[in-house]
Amino acid sequence: MKVVICALVVGSALCGLVLVGAAWAETAWVDEINNSLSFSTANYPSSNWEPYHQKLRLLREAISRGDNQAVRMEMGKWFRMLQHRDHGISDVAAGELYKFSLMGTPIQEYGIAVPAGPAGLGETGY
Q1: DSSP string, 34-93
Q2: Is residue 9 part of a domain?
Q3: Is residue 70 part of a domain?
Q4: Nearest-CA neighbor of 36 among 84, 86, 104?
Q5: Has residue 79 been placed in a domain?
Q6: Number of domain units in the chain
Q7: Among 27, 104, 34, which Cα is nearest to 62's?
Q8: Which of 21, 46, 79, 117 is the most buried (most CB within 10 A)?
Q9: pLDDT band at residue 14 under the 50/70/90 scheme
């Protein structure tokens, strides 16, 4: 009896770890984009980065809810913000974040429409 209970406890703990690991993996790409955003925030302090941070918070919430439509919509907005250099970010910062986001985002998984990058990046649209 003790063996069965012990096996159930261990099995439950392992299932919990798998679920936590899966949830972490779903948002790992957003964390990487957020790290890149933090780097840009530190290196280009004169820009208004708060709307970009807010967009990533909305994105993380959408992923947590399993709302793929919201993920697709918010990432589309993210790429458009970078394309247009919204909120006064520099050309260099926009280009860096755009390229990094493009590399790390599971575009096909979510069906994200990616507009052409900021001017000067060439043909990068999907």
Answers
A1: HHHHHHHHHH-TTS--HHHHHHHHHHHHHHHHT-HHHHHHHHHHHHHHHHHTGGG--HHH
A2: no
A3: yes
A4: 104
A5: yes
A6: 1
A7: 27
A8: 79
A9: low
